[in-house]
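Example 319, ligand TXD.
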Amino acid sequence: MARKKIALIGAGNIGGTLAHLAALKGLGDIVLFDVVEGVPQGKALDLSQCGPVEGFDTKITGSNDYADIAGADVIIVTAGVARKPGMSRDDLLGINLKVMKAVGEGIRDNAPDAFVICITNPLDAMVWALREFSGLPHNKVVGMAGVLDSARFSHFLADEFGVSVKDVNSFVLGGHGDTMVPVPQYSTVNGIPVPDLVKMGRSTQERIDAIVQRTRSGGGEIVALLKTGSAYYAPATSGIAMAEAYLYDQKRILPTAAYVEGKYGVDGLYVGVPVVIGAGGAEEIVEIELDETAKANLQVSVDAVKELLVACKGIDSTL
Ligand code: TXD
């Protein structure tokens, strides 16, 4: 069977890590694309030289020409600029919207049948703009944020309860920003809901609230430490999990920035919700019962995303 083809648009910190992970996992042949000449080619050559050590024969190439992404099965987009200390994700909008226009047109013209995972920030607006510019079906364009945010939430919860991350399933809804909605009620340790663990005295509400807040500012915490950029190992790992769900038709329910039409009281925008991801892309949006607090918090997140879309339309009148 012919190998799948993975195109990575953006060969920076996340792009290079995506390529390394995809190669190690044997997901398919890899094309690293970037506008900077030499970077995708250099990283591709370096990564290819892992092959003899790891034993993978996948072809890894670098390119500055969109024609080379032709026929890609999965495209993961990290093109754009990342945050520096003191910057919010929303501060990136002006620059990255123009990047999404170029990337969207490149995908439209060369790989319209791909499943596209957008990672570029501000994520909820950039995935919407990328879908608009590319013209691909809404179920074939999604955003990666919730898998990362819930991984951060799960990591902190596993630490708090002194348990294996294997047994922690956590739930984050809403946008990839300060308004994201970690949902302890739907977060469990091997099926035991977090609120029950608090009642059992294994933590306190205050400590869980602090973990929720630390999850919300998880990206900023790393930007402040790194000073030169933002997180890239866990974002790349999260993007790869979504790509695998599509490539292997896993029907995973993953927190995903998906196009919502009607569910959760949302109509016509991308927001982080539980989505079944399989060979059909975003196959189904799973609508769960939310308590009043989670509903209100989700609405705040949706309103914040709507403001970003207004800003996008103010910059690019074709949107
Ligand atoms: O959870 C999430 N979605 C976030 C997303 C988690 C972490 C980082 N998040 C965002 O991903 C971050 O705010 C950035 O917007 C993207 C990529 O982050 P990364 O750390 O990979 O940024 P880099 O290292 O600066 O890489 C960006 C690359 C760089 O090589 C540029 O030359 C390239 O993008 N770039 C372009 N490639 C193609 N086309 C265009 N126009 C272009 N402009 C820049």
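Summary: Residues 9-15, 34-36, 39, 78-83, 92, 96, 99, 102-103, 119-121, 123, 144-145, 148, 176, 229-232, 235 surround TXD (CB under 6 Å).
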